[in-house]
Amino acid sequence: xxxxxxxxxVSEFIFLGLCDSxxxxxxxxxxxxSLYLLTILGNIFIVLLITADLHLxxxxxxxxxxxxxxxxxxxxxxxxxxxxxxxxxSKTISFGGCMCQIFFGHFFGGGEMVLLVSMAYDRYVAIxxxxxxxxxxxxxxxxxxxxxxxIIGFVHSISQLVIIIxxxxxxxxxxxxxxxxxxxxxxxxxxxxxxxxxxxNADSGVLATxxxxxxxxxxxxxxxxxxxxxxxxxxKALSTCTAHITVVVLFFVPCIFIYLCPLSITWMDKFLAVxxxxxxxxxxxxxxxxxxxxxxxxxxxx
Length: 302
Hints:
Blueprint: H1 3-8, E1 12-15, H2 22-52, H3 59-85, E2 92-94, H4 95-128, H5 133-136, H6 139-164, E3 174-175, H7 182-185, H8 194-229, H9 231-260, H10 266-291, H11 293-301
Parallel strand pairs: 1-3
Antiparallel strand pairs: 1-2
């Protein structure tokens, strides 16, 4: 049978969602709608605040504004569809819509991973090479770091999509989740995808793991370097990096579990998916706003 015929046989996929109970879905509708609204407003607020306040026109806050923008986009890939599906009896998504969720989810997710590494590099230069900070982290370097994150995110995402979009989908259509992701969609292909599944999962898992290891090494080096010079400096450095480290751990751990340590427990898979898609984009405005003195001062000035 021709491959195109196989693909055309499945024009849409069916989401099983998070739960069957109508009461539970009504409760989750309120919760996730509130979280999504907070995520959108919080990230837009950070972008506008950093843009408007001249005191925040520095490399660290330039990268932070870009991180907020990516979080804004990442949260909008799957959450609006999940929220509207709580109101529907039949939760479906077109084949093209499913592929779009996969592409943009990995595009923004991969870009955010690389951007977090760039932010760690910025902190490394600021704390370990303060006298050379202005010359190293110039405007051109900041733009290059941001562009690199977008390019790597795009290459990572398109490499995944090119493989999965060519698979034959001619049989089952049900996805036991609330959004399309490769580990779930690839199970529905009408062919043996074991090797392909390992390669695709390794692509995402390796990118996440490499970025995570680089971040751990960079922040460890920062703290060790400052501890070696002064205890007061170590305390200040720890305070500066705590927010970054918190975001890094909460962002990467669910992603690594989803791709490198796939679980057979359905509710745990869904919990990690919800955490990654809904909670993680809210962490950035919450953690950086609550823990950053300069952001607080900028809010007071505003």
